[in-house]
Amino acid sequence: MPPSSPRRLSLQQIVEGQRRAAFVGREAELGLFRANFALPPEDPRHRFVFHVRGNAGVGKTSLVREWRELAGEFGALTASVDESADSVPDVLAAIAAQFAEQGYPLKALDRLLDTYRRALHDMAGRLAADNESSAGGPSPGALAAAQAGLIAAGAIPVVGALAGGIDPAVLARGAGGLRAVFGGRARQQEEARLLAEPVRVLTPVFVAEIDRVADAVPWVVLFLDTYERTAPQLDRWLADLLTPGRYGELPANLVLTLAGQRRLDPVHWGDRGRLVADVPLGPFTEEESRQLLYGRGVVAEPVVREVLRLSGGLPVLVSTLAANPGAAGEANATAVERFLAGESDPVRRAAALACALPRRFDEDLVAVAVPHGSHAVPGLYDWLHELPFVAEPYSGRSRYHAVVRAPMLRLQRTGSPRRWKAAHDRLAEAFAARRDAAAEGLDPERLWASQPWRRAALDVLYHRLCARPRTALPEALRAGIALCDQRPSRARYWARTLMEAGEDADDAVLREWGRDLLAAVTDHGPRPTAALGILLTRAELTDRDRAAALVARAWDRFRAGELDAALSDHGRAIAVDPRSERAHQGRAVILRSLGRYEEALADLDRAEEIAPAWAWAVRERGETYRRMGRPEEALTVLDRAHAMDPADAVPLGSRGLVRHVLGRHEEALDDFDRAIALWPEYTWALVRRARVRTALGDPVGALADLDRAEELTPGLAGTEGERGEVYRATGRHEEAVACYGRALALDPDYAWAHGSRALAQEALGRIPEARADLDRALELDPGYAWARAQRERLGARTGQ
Q1: What does R_g of the chain's alpha carbons equal in angstroms?
Q2: DSSP readout, 179-226?
Q3: Range from 220-224, 253-257, 275-279, 395-399 carrying the lowest mean pLDDT
């Protein structure tokens, strides 16, 4: 029998071998990672987490690839995930698939992930079947809200590859079906919990599986690349994963590597610094740059010096220039000419330049950006992705490395200002079409809260500012006011758009606006007060715009509890623009919170007089009647508000609480289900739905709602107070007392929590403590009639 032939290498293996052979530099980083495997986990010098960080183009991904190969040399079981897996279930699925390819399947996790996928599709099928018999379909607003719910991380119930294409129309119509799936009374309790809380259910199984396979291999090493993009979704989960007892015990031979542009968030990683090896990457040293150039055959000293000058040692740029170094005498060659020196086709050269204009591009935008007719060249889009400086991070939106894009922009801006403006005008029109398409079915008052609309709108602003900085600036500032009002936490993206446009258009005024606004937003976190203050003092605004900015700032101050300042801003807005319905409505909300109900109703009268068809003013009237203790009037008005805008979750939430007060608990639950389906992050409605579920004898569902509310908005006294109510209703009085105590630690003046804790204390036989709680509740709120009645009852019972 002839001896067997050695197994042939695959094309991919050959390419990877060539890539590894071409890798140069980073000896210190490679040594650091290698040395860690020589240290037992018990050694204080051993690190369980490596964090590679640095700007785009410094070679983080290349280093991570080398580290993975190096880990394999030590017998490690490895898996690598990038931003294409941007949710916890997606990450777990990717790791499980890669482990299985290496002969170590995570069978229990795979089965649970299969159950998860199947349950998602079963849910969609059930809801579709339920709704096929229903007359009509969802309104455009309901459809858009349901789609937004699918996109929101952690909402119904996951985004990414595992979402499986659930039809948002089904969710928009299926409040009853959603209740069946997510409610605590669902037939399949475990499946319902898996759908509602995938991270909490999947992670312990993942940890147990990792612990199992870790017994069979020397090391388990996980790599998360482009972490700057996935950190918002994964940071808290990873920190919890490393917290003792949170999800189970991780094996000691596990090493985690993160690679991103920024430092780790101290909120999640500050107390875990001893676990982490921080590995900042800077540009290549001259020695490393020369090593790469010599390896590519670039040895002529004048050329080497020119490459070193142009690249600044940035690996991606050194690599690009090494591939096309040009002739030795080209001392004045521009960086752009170096990038494209290997391409003689003028159409492709023009396309490569043109596609630097948009901040990100896809195949459709190539047809807009490149000179007329160039997009018809076969394979143009695919060719662009063969260029070493083009990356395609996710969602089909490709981008150039910043260090390559900047000189390309300068060349086009200075070479032909006319073509520069025309190209940006075309791109602005293309993004405007996308923006308008994304607006379909959305509430105009919430456009900036929609990510697809916001992304397109900011790209429109960017290109208009690049084409005509001074002319487009007023529109950009006006857009910022609306964004600060509707989605203040995203104001940094708007400010960064102005700054980037100023840099790319080389406009000092625009650059200064962007820099100052970004600094204001960054210094004050998610609060837009400082940025709005800059607009109010420095920008030339119309009366309508000034009133809008004052209203946006008033809402921010109201949310921060600065009621007097908020009331003042609304008053100034009305003085500037007496016909600002939003100023009247906003002032009504603040007056209502101060108990000045009649004044609030007068402002709402004026708002409705100015804008009779505006549902928001009507819904605030209904909420005002509810707080005034006039439930029947509130119900009538909230019915009208819901009819005016069926896609608005707030009237449904208010109406649900009114129906609960009237004892119509099933109807109340239906209202809350529909409200949360429209707005999955509606914390207020989640907490109130828990109250209704408690009344209906569903403590499991109530606690699940409160857990979700805590995830969305941690540290609310009301959430802990309601949790105490659930425990008290089920006879778990000690746990109830503890919850009320936590609520009062968060808000010592929470009179309701004192009153409710009194009943739990009484049930435990602690009469003096119960009496003290009721006394404190009445001290905080002398008009608290319920607490007074309980105090009198307790006094009659004890003779005091």
Answers
A1: 30
A2: HHHHSTT-SSHHHHHHHH-HHHHHHHHHHHHHHHHHTTSS-EEEEE-S
A3: 395-399
Please name the residues in contact with 61: beta carbons below 8 A apart, sequence gap of 6 or more.
225, 226, 259
Whole-angstrom Cα distance, residue 724 to residue 736? 4
The DSSP output letter for 75 is T
Residue among 340, 419, 428, 337 at smallest CA distance from 384 = 340
Compare 234 and 156 and report the one with higher pLDDT: 234
What is the rounded distance in angstroms from the CA atom of residue 505 to the CA atom of residue 615?
A: 42
Report whether 486 contacts 448 (CB < 8 A). Answer: yes
CB 208: neighbour CB atoms within 10 A? 15
DSSP 3-state of 329 = coil
* pLDDT value at residue 609: 96
- Concatenate the DSSP letters of all residues of 502-533 into one string: HHHHT-HHHHHHHHHHHHHHHHTTT--HHHHH
pLDDT exceeds 50 at position 181? no
Entry field: residues in the chain: 800
Asked if 271 and 239 touch (Cβ cutoff 8 Å), the reply is no
Q: Which residues contact 505 (CB under 8 A, 6 or more apart)?
A: 413, 465, 466, 469
Q: Is 410 exposed, middle or buried (0-12, 13-18, 19+ CB in 10 A)?
A: middle
367/427 Cα distance (integer angstroms)? 10
Residue with the bigger pLDDT between 782 and 406: it is 782
Tokens for 596?
Answer: 């000045």
pTM: 0.59
Partners of 390 in the β-ladder? 400
Whether residue 153 is predicted with pLDDT greater than 80 in this model: the reply is no
Q: Is 55 exposed, middle or buried (0-12, 13-18, 19+ CB in 10 A)?
A: middle
Q: Which among 372, 358, 542 has a CA at the least distance from the CA of 464?
A: 358
Q: Is the pLDDT of residue 359 over 50?
A: yes
| Predicted pLDDT of residue 127 | 52
Residue 573 CA neighbour count, 13 Å, CB half: 27
Angle at the Cα of 190 from the Cα atoms of 186 and 192, rounded to 5 degrees: 45
Backbone angles phi, psi at 337, to 5 degrees: -60, -35
For the ranges 120-129, 170-179, 243-252, 610-619, which has the lowest average pLDDT?
170-179
Q: Which residue(s) pair with 49 in the sheet? A: 256, 276
Tell me if 289 sits within 8 A of 307, measured CB to CB. Answer: yes
